[in-house]
Predict the 3D structure of the following.
Amino acid sequence: MAFYMVEKHSPAYSVTWGIKDIIYTEKTPYQKLSIIETEEFGRALVIDNILQTTINDEFYYHEMIAHVPLFTHANPRRVLIIGGGDGGTAREVLKHRGVEQIDLVDIDERVIAVCKKFLPELSCSFDNPKVNLIITDGVKYVQSQKNKYDVVIIDSTDPEPVGPAVELYSSNFYQSVYRCLKDDGLFVAHTDSPCFSFSKHFFRGFWHRINAYFPLTKAYIICVPSYISGYWSFTIGSKRYDPLQDYRQDSSMKTRFYTSELHKACFVLPRFVQELITEKTKE
Ligand code: SAM
């Protein structure tokens, strides 16, 4: 083993990654960006020392953040991705042939440029004419859009105490997302792991903030081995369609993780997660 990267999540919890090589690193105007070669999970993108996505398990996350909301919507044509600078989510959204345009809004053009160079398996989506790259703060962009999108996907960095993504988890932001969606629109955000003392209040708080604006709020959980605990949540806020009652199927779509059975099963939450949601938020 050449050396290690320690991914610190709290004073009491870190993850250690055995690394073969640090392929690239850069301090951008917004964050510290690295591409590393890990022993276990292959090439990976790291932002501010938090692992974002690895070649070995990126498809678990990218398929489930894209296909669950897109199969829930009756006819998604205009999709907005906030973040997603590695391109993996856009790659999955493009599999939905009815989608006419994907606006991908990332604050940091360096993430896109570096992923184009070092993670072509993910950034291949940027070559598709349906993908429209917009370099700006997702918070400001969403405030400026009204009644425009069928599906919005928040694929940002985690809600660390500092960094450009903090506001992407605020009530004001979720209210702006509501306004930028069409009357039957829906959105999804990844909402951290419900397993740790330092993250379960994130999950509970996000769910309640979303539920304050959307008539239908549902959380789903999958396993993403390279994310803390491997137990990772997403939360959908929907103006009309129910991810469990209204979802469509397309058996011709090529996926490696998503299935229509898993679409249903991932919404079955363990009791402790249900109780996190039903507990009155302490905010
Ligand atoms: N898939 C990864 C995950 O699950 O954590 C994250 C995907 S991507 C690498 C995260 C992106 O969010 C980065 O490219 C970062 O630049 C972007 N981002 C962070 N804050 C943002 C903001 N306020 N507006 C737009 N993009 C933002």
Observations:
- The first strand starts at residue 3 and ends at 10.
